[in-house]
């Protein structure tokens, strides 16, 4: 091996496992101290470390969220759920967690790369915080909670778990809540509590986190939401938060594994084309060849004119073009405010007609609009891109 | 503005030999050569003494000797000899860059070396398949910012005007596009149904008559494109098409390496699912593709000049949606990278 390659490997810093602590039937924490004796890395609450995991076929990189107090601990802590049913084609999901659980012991030395990730707590903000965790998704949120414990912000933590045997960090979270003097509230939800959970009252609610539960515990407020958990959990939470009127921009989330967009997932589960199975060999090697959207893990699909079903406007969907002195009811045969204006003989400026160039931007004097295409940049409050917006009720435009 | 924690193409494998050579990547000058054991080495191309490029010096075994005062560096960039009676100053080293050879290309990692993982190099599933033919790779210098070429490769419409004699057909003018953002890039695609194959493809498809055609234009961060063309007999294509056995597929892989803010080295090759061993076909396709890409080069050079010397604002059209979404996400990734670098340094 050339020397620089050894040096590259060395640049992955070496850490010793100073403690290996069982947190639940399936979750184990690892405390990590740098072998070089130097300072810990600076990390932001919510970030993860990258681990070099040895496998029979060479090493692979796996990431684990920091779960400890990233500002005060004198070690880095990760907490890992043992994934015992590997799936996937190349590197099984469970390869890193099984290695950590089964082979790494106190005293083991492992190679780790510095903290990364943009799913981090906004420490400048003073808004109340909602932390929504599904299962092991609690880890980055626990790091956030520990920092929030030293703030003045109101914090609600909801932790959804299968039962008390697999639930981790109950004691740590309870301690944060107790010490906060009522500023931090913890609510534990067990989907299928065991007899022991019932006997020891180890949960606050049974079932899942639903809109009614959130509504009954949360006063109406301008929350910042951080959530992490299994995909289905996150999609359900995202739907509920949106239904409760929480702005998209106030919802931060992190997937473990392949990233995608919750907005998309919440609306339409991806469909898989099977066309390739009928294809000749050299074509069948391509997965889902004919529909890139099916195999590309769509995140944002920008709708085209043809995709948008006729929308029947409600009675009150009225547009007032104030400067022109024209008032018009929205109709089902025009898609956008721009098309309505043109239909009425007005000639607003436009260029792209698809929400990317901002040429058509104008002042929204009154009312609310919805977007049939997601603008490239969300217009500021009080502004509207008329080329891709429809009225929701009575709208007054400075046109 | 470049994403640094990413693999870029440094050169074709055949371009790097035992001779010292300078390449430029993201505006940095890098000295590349092979060791006696055939490993590719990439070092900052400036002696720390008076900054003479090491590539102007000599290769001595597996070390590089500066052509000015003989400072000698090993493959890790560490100085192993300097004038001064055997004492080597602690700052006498040059930065080494991780490299990896794959698909006949040398890839170079420009960011934090600790994060360099060759597994992250783009996956090309059919590269080694005997069912797929390949036309030999090529490269050219573009006199434009690399993002203008990324724009071009997220733009299925330009073929109607730029590549009239090769890729264009009437349907390429105004068939609507679909834009999909993925975890690692943007795809712009469209199906064009029941029309005569474009001239370049008419020569290679193995069926008669009209076709259904997919244009799949995909660019992955930072600047790697997969342009997939599917031609299938009319009536067998579309998103739910059943892929007739005569379906023709060409996957064009395109890698843009920014050499500076205004220059790009552009690498490519194509894989096809017909007549894999037909060397004449490979040769013809390679020549035609090169000719078409020269057409892009001429346009993009002028666009670079035009966009850098605007006398009036430019406009964006609906067909630019994929490009602008790609640029916006890449900017966000670059900003995140800088934020993290700053935090790590602090």
UniProtKB/TrEMBL annotation, chain A:
Domain (2Fe-2S ferredoxin-type) ranges: 316-399
E.C. number(s) listed in UniProt: 1.14.12.17
Uppermost EC category: oxidoreductase
Domain FAD-binding FR-type: 10-122
Molecular function as annotated in GO: 2 iron, 2 sulfur cluster binding; flavin adenine dinucleotide binding; metal ion binding; nitric oxide dioxygenase NAD(P)H activity
Reaction catalysed by this enzyme: 2 nitric oxide + NADH + 2 O2 = 2 nitrate + NAD(+) + H(+); 2 nitric oxide + NADPH + 2 O2 = 2 nitrate + NADP(+) + H(+)
Record bears the keyword Iron-sulfur: yes
Record family assignment: In the C-terminal section; belongs to the flavoprotein pyridine nucleotide cytochrome reductase family.
PANTHER family: 1,2-PHENYLACETYL-COA EPOXIDASE, SUBUNIT E, NADH OXIDOREDUCTASE HCR
Name this protein carries in UniProt: nitric oxide dioxygenase
Native source species: Thalassospira profundimaris
TrEMBL record, chain B:
UniProt keywords, alphabetically: 2Fe-2S, Iron, Iron-sulfur, Metal-binding, Oxidoreductase
Ranges of residues in domain Rieske: 7-108
InterPro entries: Cholesterol_7-desaturase, Rieske_2Fe-2S, Rieske_2Fe-2S_sf, VanA_C_cat
GO molecular function: 2 iron, 2 sulfur cluster binding; metal ion binding; oxidoreductase activity
KW Cell inner membrane (keyword) present: no
PROSITE patterns for the chain: RIESKE
Native source organism of the sequence: Thalassospira profundimaris
Protein name: (2Fe-2S)-binding protein
Keyword Mitochondrion in annotation: no
Pfam family membership, one: Rieske
């Amino acid at each position: 091996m050339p020397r620089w390659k050894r040096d590259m490997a060395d640049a992955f810093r070496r850490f010793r496992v100073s403690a290996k602590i069982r947190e639940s039937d399936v979750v184990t924490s690892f405390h990590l101290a740098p072998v070089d004796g130097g300072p810990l890395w600076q990390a932001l609450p919510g970030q993860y470390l990258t681990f070099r995991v040895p496998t029979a076929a060479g090493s692979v990189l796996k990431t684990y969220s920091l779960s400890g107090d990233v500002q005060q601990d004198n070690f880095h802590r990760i907490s890992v759920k043992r994934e015992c049913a590997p799936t996937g084609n190349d590197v099984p999901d469970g390869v890193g967690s099984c290695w950590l659980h089964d082979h790494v012991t106190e005293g083991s030395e492992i190679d780790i790369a510095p903290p990364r990730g943009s799913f981090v707590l906004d420490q400048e903000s003073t808004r109340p915080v909602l932390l929504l965790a599904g299962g092991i998704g609690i880890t980055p949120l626990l790091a956030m909670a520990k920092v929030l414990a030293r703030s003045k912000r109101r914090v609600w933590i909801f932790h959804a778990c299968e039962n008390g045997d697999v639930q981790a960090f109950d004691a740590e979270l309870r301690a944060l809540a107790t010490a906060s003097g009522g500023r931090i509230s913890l609510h534990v939800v067990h989907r299928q509590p065991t007899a022991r959970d019932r006997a020891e009252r180890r949960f606050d609610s049974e079932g899942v986190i639903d809109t009614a539960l959130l509504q009954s515990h949360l006063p109406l407020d301008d929350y910042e939401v951080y959530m992490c958990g299994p995909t289905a959990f996150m999609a359900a939470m995202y739907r509920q938060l949106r239904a409760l009127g929480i702005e998209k921009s106030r919802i931060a989330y992190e997937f473990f594994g392949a990233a995608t967009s919750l907005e998309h997932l919440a609306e339409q589960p991806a469909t898989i084309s099977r066309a390739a199975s009928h294809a000749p060999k050299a074509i069948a090697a391509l997965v889902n060849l004919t529909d890139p959207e099916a195999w590309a893990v769509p995140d944002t699909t920008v709708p085209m004119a043809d995709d948008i079903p006729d929308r029947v406007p409600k009675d009150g969907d009225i547009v007032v073009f104030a400067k022109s002195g024209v008032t018009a009811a929205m109709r089902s045969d025009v898609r956008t405010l721009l098309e309505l204006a043109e239909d009425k003989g007005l000639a607003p400026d436009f260029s792209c007609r698809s929400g990317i160039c901002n040429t058509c931007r104008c002042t929204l004097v009154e009312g609310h609009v919805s977007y049939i295409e997601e603008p490239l940049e969300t217009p500021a409050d009080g502004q509207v891109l008329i080329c891709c917006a429809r009225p929701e009720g009575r709208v007054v435009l400075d046109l | 503005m470049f994403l640094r924690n990413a693999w870029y193409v440094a050169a074709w494998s055949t371009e790097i030999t035992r001779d010292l050579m300078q390449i430029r990547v993201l505006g940095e000058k890098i000295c590349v050569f092979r060791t006696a054991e055939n490993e590719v080495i990439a070092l900052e191309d400036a002696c720390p003494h008076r900054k003479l490029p090491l590539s102007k010096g000599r290769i001595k075994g597996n070390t590089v000797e500066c052509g000015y005062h003989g400072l000698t560096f090993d493959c890790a960039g560490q100085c192993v000899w300097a004038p001064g009676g055997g004492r080597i100053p602690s700052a006498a080293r040059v930065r080494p860059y991780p490299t990896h050879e794959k698909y006949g290309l040398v890839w170079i990692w420009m960011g934090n070396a600790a994060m360099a993982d060759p597994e992250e190099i783009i996956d090309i599933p059919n590269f080694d398949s005997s069912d797929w033919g390949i036309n030999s790779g090529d490269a050219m210098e573009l006199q434009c910012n690399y993002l203008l070429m990324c724009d071009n490769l997220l733009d299925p419409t330009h073929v109607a005007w730029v590549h009239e004699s090769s890729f264009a057909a009437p349907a390429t003018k105004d068939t609507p596009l679909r834009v999909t953002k993925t975890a690692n890039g943007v795809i712009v695609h469209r199906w064009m149904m029941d029309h005569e194959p474009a001239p370049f493809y008419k020569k290679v498809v193995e069926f008669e008559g009209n076709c259904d055609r997919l244009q799949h234009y995909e660019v992955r961060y930072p600047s790697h494109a997969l342009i997939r063309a599917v031609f299938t007999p009319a009536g067998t294509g579309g998103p739910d098409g059943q892929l007739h056995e005569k379906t023709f597929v060409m996957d064009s892989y395109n890698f843009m390496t920014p050499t500076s803010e205004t220059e790009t080295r552009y690498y490519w090759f194509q894989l096809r699912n017909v007549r894999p061993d037909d060397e004449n076909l490979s040769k013809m396709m390679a020549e035609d593709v090169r000719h078409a890409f020269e057409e892009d080069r001429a346009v993009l050079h002028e666009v670079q000049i035009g966009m850098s010397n605007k006398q009036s604002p430019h406009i964006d059209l609906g067909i630019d949606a994929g490009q602008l979404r790609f640029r916006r996400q890449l900017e966000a990734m670059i900003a995140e990278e800088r934020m993290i670098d700053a935090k790590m340094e602090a």
